[in-house]
Structure formats: C-alpha cells, structure tokens
Design a protein that fits this description.
Oligomer: single chain
CATH superfamily: Vaccinia Virus protein VP39
CATH topology: Rossmann fold
Strand order of the largest sheet: 5-4-3-6-7-9-8
Order of helices and strands: EEHEHEHEHEHEEE
Number of strands: 9
CATH architecture: 3-Layer(aba) Sandwich
Largest sheet: 7 strands, mixed
Distance between the termini: 46 Å
Number of helices: 5
Radius of gyration: 15 Å
C-alpha cells in the first residue's frame, strides 16, 4: 500500500530488524490495538536472537501482528496469527502479502484458547492480550495444559506493570524480565512434565 493509498491517520509500525527492517506496516486505528513498542520489541528479539531462526511461532491476541511479523523478518519459519478482531486479521494479511510472506503464515479469527487446544506445536508463543481483559494467566495455563509448546518452548508474556498478571510458576520459569513505562514483559521457559 503506497503512502497516498493509506487512509489519513491510520497508525503504522516499523519492523525493527531482519529482512524487512525499516518497513512500515499499517494497522487499524482502534483503542483495543496496542502494538508492542519498538523499544520492547528490540529487547525481546535480542533475547530471542539465538532461537528465532527456523522457529514455529504463534502470535496469540495478535492485534497489529507486530510480534509475529518481526519474528518472520528475523528468520522464523512460520507464524500463526490469532485474533478475535476480523479487521485486525485482515490488516495482518495485507501486510504479509506486501512483504511476500503470506505463505509463511496462517491467520485465524477466533478465541485464542481454541487454537491452543489443537494439534499444532510451537517453539515460541507471543501472549500479549489487551491489558484490561485479564486473559494472560488463563492463556498461559491453557498453553501449559495443552502441551502445544515444544521441549524448552518459550513464551513472551506482556502485561501492565502497574497491575501485572501472575505467571503460573508450576508451568514456567521466568527466563528474562524487564519493564518499560507501564509495560512489564517477560520471556518464559516452559517446564515440560
């Protein structure tokens, strides 16, 4: 989509690194969409650098798709994008097509736990639900119960710093943790049975 085709005021995000570094992507202007900031994404993908190449990823509550697209840009083999908002999924699809990466992704408009309870297995899962929804802990527990993470699978979990959701520590160890503004973000390692 060219600059002049983009609706006035439509928000954009920038791919931080990898093959599509610097590319700008548009997403719907909605209060419910809160893309992970450049600063947080840069830190996260520095943490993930040794693990993201050829990884199978899942972007739950994908929103703008910033995390999954960043993973693909940095060499992830595939990413599944899941969100309940059809408009958000349509924008992710348009962005993937513009990057020539539609064949490396699956897009689904549904509740996150529907996908988690399927047969697929992932190396890296991004869990960044709307802060006010309080879905994080439930999704982490659902991920652990479904056994959909591979051995030593990693989960990125973003929550509000001022009212953080807990991590079910019987299922995950906190591998890395940092804050930026009112965001607390953690990289969790799945404790397989």
């Amino acid at each position: 989509m060219s600059q002049r085709d983009r609706p006035l005021g439509q928000p954009q995000l920038r791919v931080i690194g990898g093959d599509w570094r610097g590319r700008k992507l548009s997403f719907p202007s909605k209060r419910s969409l809160r893309p992970t900031t450049d600063r947080v994404r840069e830190t996260l993908f520095n943490w993930l650098a040794p693990m993201v190449r050829d990884a199978q990823c899942l972007d739950l509550c994908a929103g703008s798709g910033a995390l999954g697209i960043e993973a693909l840009s940095r060499g992830a083999q595939r990413c599944d994008f899941v969100d309940t908002d059809q408009q958000a999924i349509d924008a992710i699809e348009q962005n993937l097509c513009s990057l020539g990466a539609a064949d490396r992704a699956t897009l689904r408009t549904c509740e996150a736990d529907t996908v988690v309870n399927g047969d697929a297995r992932w190396d890296i899962v991004f869990v960044d639900p709307p802060f006010e929804a309080g879905l994080g802990n439930r999704l982490l527990s659902c991920l652990a119960a479904s056994q959909c993470l591979r051995q030593d699978g990693l989960v990125y979990f973003e929550t509000r710093r001022s009212a953080p959701e807990t991590v079910p520590e019987q299922h995950y160890e906190i591998y890395r943790e940092k804050t930026a503004g009112d965001v607390c973000f953690r990289l969790l390692r799945f404790r397989s049975a």
